[in-house]
Design goal:
Layout (H helix, E strand, L loop, with lengths): L3 E5 L3 H12 L3 E5 L11 E4 L1 H9 L3 H6 L2 E3 L2 E4 L5 E4 L2 H8 L3 E5 H10 L6 E2 L4 E8 L2 E6 L2 E5 L1 E4 L6 H6 L7 E11 L10 E5 L3 E7 L5 E8 L9 H9 L6 H6 L7 E7 L8 E2 L2 E3 L2 H4 L8 H18 L3 H29 L6 H13 L2 H12 L8
Parallel strand pairs: 1-2, 1-12, 2-8, 5-14, 12-19
Antiparallel strand pairs: 3-7, 4-7, 5-6, 9-10, 10-11, 13-16, 13-17, 14-15, 15-16, 18-19
Helix pairs in contact: 1-5, 1-10, 2-10, 4-13, 10-11
Length: about 375
């Protein structure tokens, strides 16, 4: 069994993979092309499966301490009517934890702190990856290269490694949605931990973070590349008449704090998450829309499953085959479910279809709603030795 790995990409999935591999005794180097880790990003929700993966990696306790549980809230209409209520206590009873909210920057910092100094190399763009022998692979970077027993491609939705390994596979596709988000400048006096509000082809949501500040996001159905001269003013125009606390959340935000990204996904599933001694992980393998809040959680599942397979299988090739067999069906199923959730949620725009969906949601018992959530949240990680 080999014991050296290069992880390409220092995001959530890449850092988690590095932590997991180090826990099973591997020597790991992470290459991150960004020269400065500015901790950009707003907030993120972590469900039970993501938290259990973090527990397996040994960082669950510190992440929980930096998070806030989502116990109250639900889904609403722009006028303020409730379509469904969140029952965080029922989720906690079922799986041992509520969904939690954490600032993405805080999660990144905690994952980086779990690695030794020097393991993460910033300002280092990875070049071509090539197999140099039956059990070795080489990553070019900065005019030199690193040879290892394994390369983990965690280089995001635009993964150059994925493109080189599967040139005939379709690349990222625009989902039809674009998202603007930010964290409020100061703490908010909000009545609920988490809310989603669905309009026609639009969504506005918030999560409360530790300390009382809130992360909010606005999702719009627009052509790719649409940008606004003054994004915050545009959001006030579109959402300023929606129910409280939507206008207050926008009013508590600096204009220069608003991030704007188009949402892309890997709509065509990959035939494999591995090729030779390379394992694809996170968005590089299964980039999905955010409508189930499972993108980061699935990347964390990847990291634990890969590490466990390498810890228990007799050879790297066997471990990679097991990783692909265990992760690809589940991750691709969650990606399909996220796409469908978007079509029935934020992207739904026909007034009759919206009315039918809203009626169905109001009539769905809370226990049935919890069972639907648990289809994706209730995951038990393999043990890392």
């Amino acid at each position: 069994m080999g014991s050296t790995a290069v992880v390409v990409g220092g995001g959530i999935g890449g850092l988690a993979a590095a932590i997991g591999l180090r826990r099973i005794g591997w020597d790991v180097t992470v290459l991150e092309r960004a020269a400065v880790l500015d901790d950009a990003g707003a907030g993120i929700s972590l469900a039970a499966n993501g938290l259990r993966a973090l527990d397996a990696l040994g960082v669950g306790e510190v992440v929980r301490a930096a998070s806030r549980g989502q116990y109250t809230g639900g889904t609403r209409t722009p006028g303020g009517g409730w379509l469904s209520h969140m029952d965080g206590a029922a989720l906690e009873e079922a799986v041992g934890t509520p969904i939690v909210g954490i600032a993405r920057a805080a999660l990144h910092r905690l994952l980086r702190q779990a690695l030794p100094a020097g393991a993460l190399r910033t300002g280092t763009a990875a070049g071509p990856v090539r197999q140099t022998g039956p059990s070795t692979v080489r990553v070019e970077h900065g005019g030199t290269g690193l040879e290892a027993d394994l390369v983990v491609a965690a280089d995001g939705i635009g993964s150059t490694i994925r493109r080189s390994l599967f040139p005939s596979c379709d690349g990222p596709v625009y989902s039809g949605s674009t998202v603007l988000r930010a964290i409020t400048e100061h703490p908010m006096d909000l009545r609920s931990d988490f809310e989603l509000t669905w309009g026609r082809g639009t969504e506005f949501g918030h999560i409360l973070l530790p300390g009382g500040r809130a992360e909010w996001h606005a999702v719009l159905t627009l052509p790719a590349g649409t940008r606004f001269t003054d994004p915050l003013a545009e959001l006030h125009r579109r959402f300023g008449h929606w129910h409280a606390p939507v206008p207050a959340l926008l009013g508590a935000t600096r204009g220069d704090a608003v991030l704007h990204h188009d949402v892309y996904e890997l709509r065509a599933p990959l035939p494999s998450f591995t090729a030779g001694r390379v394992a694809l992980l996170g968005d590089a393998a299964h980039a999905m829309t955010p409508h189930l809040g499972q993108g980061a959680c699935q990347a964390l599942e990847d990291a634990v499953t890969l590490s466990a397979a390498l810890a228990t299988e007799p050879a790297v090739d066997a471990a990679l085959a097991r990783y692909d067999a265990e992760r690809r069906p589940r991750a691709q199923a969650v990606a399909r479910a996220a796409r469908q959730a978007g079509r029935m949620g934020q992207q739904l725009s026909h007034p009759v279809a919206v009315a039918l969906r809203n009626t169905a949601m109001r009539l769905t018992p809370s226990r049935a709603a919890v069972r639907m959530i648990l289809r994706h949240h209730d995951w038990t990680p393999p043990r890392l030795r």
